[in-house]
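Q: Second attempt. The first request was missing the SMILES, so the protein and magnesium ion are both included now.
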Amino acid sequence: MRPEEGVLTSRSRAIGAVLELLHDELVVVCNGFPSREAYALRDRPQNFYMIGSMGVASAIGLGVALAQPQRKVLILDGDGNVLMGMGTLATIGAVKPKNLLHIVFDNEVYGSTGNQPTISQVVRLDQVAKAAGYRNVERVRELDDLVYEAKAMLKQEGPSFLLVKVSELAEDVGRVALEPPAMTERFRKAAVGGTA
Ligand SMILES: Cc1ncc(C[n+]2csc(CCOP(=O)(O)OP(=O)(O)O)c2C)c(N)n1
Ligand SMILES: [Mg+2]
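A: Got both inputs this time. The predicted holo structure:
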């Protein structure tokens, strides 16, 4: 069996494993099912869900990381989102916020809109991040490896980029049941006010 073959974990399990590691870290989640799954698995005031706009979670996460340099900031992203906002990888690589960890759940499809294929199978997003200047870059396929690398990257000086190959499976979860202004205010308080 080639190393790139084998059964992949679902994005929901992968997101759940990351969220379990967290304490007061700030998290920005991209639009679509990643936000829905994160909300269903572990909603917390430190989570900001980008409801609607695609490709911008990384820019929001970068802004939060720069505004709150003492806080660890995670971006939970999708391959389609990263491809749409690829310029932000360059900005993060150039600005190098030490407190930023960018995790990309790569299912090689626009899963939230019906599994249309993306081009992430051809364009290695981890290599793009490396070339852009992220300090630590890893690519994982197993849940154990994800937990190991995420733990390490939470301690390391960033920016770090963790590409997680996941299956196309999406959990049958509802929409994020928060009004965006209230969710934003809750996040702002959690970001400025420190530990919750
Ligand atoms: C500008 C824009 N274009 C298209 C959409 C529709 N849309 C919402 S989520 C999504 C797919 C996102 O793909 P990816 O980041 O790979 O996440 P996945 O759904 O696969 O987890 C698309 C196309 C949108 N919300 N905004
Ligand atoms: Mg995808």
